[in-house]
Specification:
By secondary structure, this protein is of the alpha/beta class. It has ten helices and eight strands. The longest helix is centred in the last third of the chain and has 23 residues. The protein is globular.
């Protein structure tokens, strides 16, 4: 099983980031869809034989999509633009949030009709929309039931800190898995730390078993941010990427072992 990591895990120019990502054995990356350096990123990744496995759609105002407002329409257009970015750069998966916060809007027909437009546009572009688990089980269930061509992005860190482990998302939606976000945290409510694996409380032996059970074949993709912890920034980029790669390889090996 290969390993991957998000861009901007450590605050560096992209040339330096990608050189370190390549050096420590990562085969793929993912990035935000509204990055203003997509042409540079695509070029650097191609030069270093790195795959851009997915993009993450904008989400700061995702709750707007459920409301009958101009902001709701604007949010839909942002998601459509993100899909176009994936199409233009040959990126197969767009990761999308359905809502945000402890008390998001209720699922409604208007929001679902907007997501229907998004999924239809993505289908026409050859892009898969992968809805990511956040705090609400219900909207994810409705979306995946309503849109058969959409997929699931499993974020093991969100499962641990946003829903306190109440739901086993992989048992529910693992057969629709198209992307993963792997990171660690304290397993405390809303403590979305995005630490390196094995630096928190998540059981990565269980993570590996779940990925093996569904036969996930893409990269073991980290979503980590050094800026969330002074200890990471103090160790420097070289040591950080080395530790990230070692952690990812350890989980990837556990996935392979669990398949046997």
């Amino acid at each position: 099983m290969q390993i991957g990591i998000n861009l901007d895990a450590f605050a560096l120019p992209y040339e330096e980031q990608i050189a370190l990502i390549k050096k420590y054995g990562f085969s793929s990356v993912f990035c935000v869809s509204d990055c203003k350096n997509m042409e540079q990123i695509a070029t650097l990744c191609a030069q270093n034989s790195l795959t851009i496995e997915s993009c993450h759609a904008p989400f700061d105002h995702i709750n707007d999509i459920w409301y009958d407002t101009d902001d709701g329409e604007r949010m839909l257009h942002e998601l459509i633009a993100a899909t176009d970015t994936c199409r233009d750069y040959g990126i197969p998966v767009l990761v999308v949030h359905l809502s945000s916060g402890e008390q998001p809007p209720r699922v409604g027909d208007l929001g679902l009709s907007r997501f229907e437009q998004l999924v239809a546009h993505a289908d026409a572009c050859g892009v898969t929309i992968a809805f990511e688990n956040q705090r609400m089980l219900g909207n994810l269930s409705v979306a995946l039931e309503t849109f058969p061509t959409a997929a699931f992005c499993w974020d093991c860190g969100h499962e641990a800190c946003f829903t306190d482990g109440k739901w086993d998302y992989m048992s529910l939606f693992g057969n629709r898995l198209a992307a993963i976000h792997i990171h660690d945290n304290r397993a405390e409510h809303n403590a979305d730390d995005h630490r390196l694996p094995f630096d928190g409380k998540i059981d990565f032996a269980e993570v590996a078993k779940k990925l093996a059970k569904v036969g996930y074949e893409k990269a073991l993709m980290l979503e980590v941010f050094a800026g969330n912890s002074p200890a990471y920034t103090e160790m420097g980029a070289e040591a950080y990427y080395a530790r990230a790669a070692a952690a990812a390889k350890k989980i990837a090996a556990a996935v392979e072992a669990a398949r046997k």
